[in-house]
Design goal:
Layout lengths: L5 E4 L9 H15 L2 E4 L8 H8 L3 E4 L7 H7 L4 E4 L4 E3 L20
Parallel strand pairs: 1-2, 1-3, 3-4
Antiparallel strand pairs: 4-5
């Protein structure tokens, strides 16, 4: 992970009626949660989970849950947390180690 918490912004252009508005709302949420926001490529042959893993981000921010299908969400939760703008939802990554404490390094947590 990076020194400053980082989020990857992604939207499905086919699912978005107003992509510029969605991007603005995603930037606002990232700023509110304390993340530096980077953008995933609009078109890529690489699966989104691999992009998230390769960019070493803490969180994926999406405009709404319908921008991901269930299989993509499940795969992403093995790598990152997922934050949705509207409705405001947080999906937390899976923990794989039984008996180990996982420290939450995300900003604005535990306040």
């Amino acid at each position: 992970m990076r020194r400053r918490p980082t989020a990857l912004g992604w939207l499905d252009s086919e699912a978005s009626a107003a992509p510029d508005w969605d991007r603005a709302q995603m930037r606002r949420l990232a700023r509110h949660l304390g993340y530096q926001l980077e953008w995933a490529p609009d078109i890529s042959m690489i699966p989104l989970v691999d992009i998230a893993r390769e960019t070493d981000v803490d969180t994926l921010i999406i405009p709404a849950p319908h921008h991901l299908d269930a299989l993509a969400l499940n795969a992403l939760l093995s790598v990152v947390d997922v934050e949705s703008v509207l409705p405001r939802l947080s999906f937390h990554r899976w923990t794989l180690s039984a008996g180990h404490t996982v420290t939450d390094h995300r900003p604005n947590r535990g306040r």
